[in-house]
């Protein structure tokens, strides 16, 4: 791409010349250096991509479930006690949507999610996907509660001393200073509550933004901590009516242990106090949480938003239902008056704390914003969980089994043979019609194929891209669209030759027009791809991705390969003399005897007729 | 080949050419006829939505010795619908059949058990929901709507609103025909079909834009001469890109035709049929409509403009006047127009101009 810019800049003035029908010398004068550079560039790109492909060890694109088979997970819905009616078609359909979203990520991984029977959901994942991860993703549909934080501290080997008071400012403060980007987890430890100056700035923002996941003041925390009295967790002991059982669980809880983590906070009722773990910034934090005040069903919608106004970066905005809005105003009003950490509430998803923002004022109005140093994916996944964590259902894995491709191997073979025959016909056609030029077209198609293949292979591990049958067909149609760019260019060149030009000027003169046609028409294809990719989900998104990729590569290949190659070839005698196998034989193109040519040059003055 | 090459040259010079715009009524008529057939086919036969859209029944069988493709044949015979069969890790199979209710599923279960030589009790039958749910479909529609609006805006800016309108008409024409023929053939609609339709959507517009691009180039500064009407120029543009259109269409159609006729027909790769049929019909319709529908439509719309009406009147008057004055007029025209042209885009085709000159000879 970089090489294209300069190219254009140089070319523009040439077009000006053209307007006034200037001689073509200026053009060929600065042509020489360019074709080699462009060709070298695309060669480097090809080598780099191919090398990258072999280095990464993924030498084939990941295939979709219809081509390669995969894993099928059957999940059974389990309703909460007393909510048996929650298993209904509406909720199941919502659950399918959630899982589809989670499992499909960017929409190109080709996983399939569907209901089976009344209470089962099948998730099909193509071979080569991390099925363990996928199982976790679909398994966590997801009960969500907002609970007040009663007590919290870092958990793990170094912080294992179970007495609440033991977590003095030291260990938490170590974390923000070492990790300036630390997110929500850092906040509870931040002794900011006792240090007004420290709190001033975040609070000011909190006023305007609603809620704040506290760590937004990353490194300053470190300086603030020394002043911090060690007692921050202590008030929890006295102020909160936490019963002894929970207190004991809390003392024993080691969140760095996956087993303990898995059981912590699970199976408890919304009305109870619970212990829970959370991991906001790479370190585990444990909590005692009060009874749930607001639950996921109270959230109407949540979205990840890039807040450019306040510079808070990626934030998550929530909209509550009217009932939820009241409840939320209530709880935030209560929390705002508390000292830290009891001015925080935890957003608990399936027993795990996903975020623990603090509150500085009662938040009314039915919506709120959570900010922290979120990255975009983090904000999106939190928003996703918030908007979909509302189902009063849990799912249990019923069975996990491998499945073979739906497309039988003999059918696939038949399809491949058929495709190969079709391609062979294309080759024959191009060669017999364009002869020498046909090789240029085939080489360009080859370059395009190599680029597409390597990029698709690399995208498999990178973003979970999987090639399915429709995508293969899309790629086959792309042959037509890619070849069209060459054909448009070749026809332009031939028209120039028919007008009596020799090859070199013809190649240069045909290019600006062919280029415009290619750009204008490819833009339409790319527009289709971009819109469909942004708006849609699932298979359509996967298709849009393939279309966009092939369209972009088409432009790249025409600019960086076909055109420079033509410029170079125009210097060879084989092509410039119009050898009969070059596809540019003036006689075969029906060029009239030279007599006409002189007339033609005078005709240059008269173009306006059309 | 060389014949096509020479034809290209003659087309280029305007020595030969088909009067696409003049004969447009024939092609409009033909298109309307096909469209009506398509709509009738669609409304009488309807589309058979596959299991991905409407759900259906799923049969899970115990371990059998029957191959997957055989089981597929059995299931299709038993149900009369397309079946999707997958082998399971247990050695059993999962057979999915669209559009089945509970009653029918029992019957199929018995039949399937017989064919597969297993105990019917061991086959587990359940209803499944669509994997291509309403939400996915809605989002796809939403995406389409947004795309249409954007593309019309884009075409209106890059070209003009008449061309945008004509491109849209051609697009609807292509999609209607493709869907109609699909309904007539009676294949089940799968996600592959939908993807095929979306591909067509892109291709149809793409192809139309290529032809419009040459039309735009050809009609630059058209009001500054009195020799050609918009219609003539449009016609010449189509003829000028005809070779390109033929070549592109052939290259695009060959691989798809391979999939459809050789793969689907001879080799029996049935699953490919749905996609390749929709793509094949759509590609052909897309190439056809760019030339026979979209461009003549633009000419029709354009000639309603007072400017173009004026031009037409002048041109006709001039033609009626006398033949031999033309040569002088050319010089005068060129003189007049050269300067203003200088400020115009660089594309003023000497090509178009020259072929115009020659075509004039032909016309006279």
The number of helical runs of chain B is 14
Distance between the termini of chain A: 36 Å
Please describe the biggest sheet of chain B, giving its number of strands, its sense, and whether it closes into a barrel.
Answer: 4 strands, antiparallel
Helical content of chain B stands at: over 70%
Strand content of chain B: 5-15%
**Poorly predicted residue ranges of chain B:** 328-364
Spatial strand arrangement across the major sheet of chain A: 4-6-5-11-10
Proportion in β-strands of chain A: 15-25%
Mean pLDDT of chain A: 69
Rg of chain A is 32 Å
Quaternary status of these chains?
heterodimer
What structural category characterises the helix and strand content of chain A? alpha+beta
Largest interface: A-B, 107 and 127 residues
CATH superfamily name of the largest domain in chain B?
Multidrug efflux transporter AcrB transmembrane domain
| Top-tier CATH class of the largest domain in chain B | Mainly Alpha
CATH topology of the largest domain in chain B: Multidrug efflux transporter AcrB transmembrane fold
Overall pLDDT of chain B, averaged? Answer: 77
